[in-house]
Write a structure and sequence with these properties.
The protein is an alpha+beta fold and about 140 residues long. The chain has a single domain, classed as HIT-like (HIT family, subunit A), CATH 3.30.428. It is about 35% helix and about 20% strand. The protein has three helices and five strands; from the N terminus they run H-E-E-E-H-E-E-H. A five-stranded antiparallel sheet has the order 1-2-3-5-4. Strand 1 and strand 2 form a beta hairpin. The radius of gyration is 14 Å and the shape is globular. The chain starts with a helix and ends with a helix. The relative contact order is 0.22.
Length: about 140
């Protein structure tokens, strides 16, 4: 879709710290993560909301979300994860995406008032990206 940032990332027109890609989906680090390792999983084809995603893509798309949630916990040495989808409201980019966020007890995340932060530099972002890629590779075996 013209002008959609996530479509541009999927097409390679915009750069992102990609951690996973398959025939249906692409995952990359959120540029303003709740915590390091916060990923966004998108379908490569433009669908605005979960309701728009064709039924035949549910299993591959959510299979990738499941694997990514395991990888985020492993790579970030987290105690769990938070997996969420906004639909229109609070959807800053109108392209279906799943947030996968590493969680720890007493991490300060309460309700829906989430403090955003940037990676301190590209080196930190690349380190997190590489850790997630490694965790995903270990889950493939």
């Amino acid at each position: 879709m013209t002008g959609c940032k996530f479509c541009q990332i999927a097409a390679g027109e915009l750069t992102a710290a990609v951690v996973y890609e398959d025939a249906v989906s692409l995952a990359f680090l959120d540029h303003r993560p709740l915590f390091p390792g916060h990923c966004l999983l998108i379908p490569k084809t433009h669908y605005e909301t979960l309701a728009d995603l064709p039924a035949k893509l549910l299993a591959p798309y959510f299979g990738a979300a499941q694997r990514l949630s395991l990888a985020v916990v492993q790579a970030m040495e987290a105690e769990g994860s938070f997996v969420a989808i906004n639909s229109k409201v609070s959807q800053s980019v109108p392209h279906l995406h799943v947030h996968i966020v590493p969680r720890r007890k007493k991490d300060g995340l309460r309700g829906f008032f989430w403090p955003r932060q940037s990676y301190k530099d590209d080196s930190e972002m690349n380190h997190v990206r590489d850790a997630l890629r490694s965790a995903l590779a270990s889950l493939s075996t």
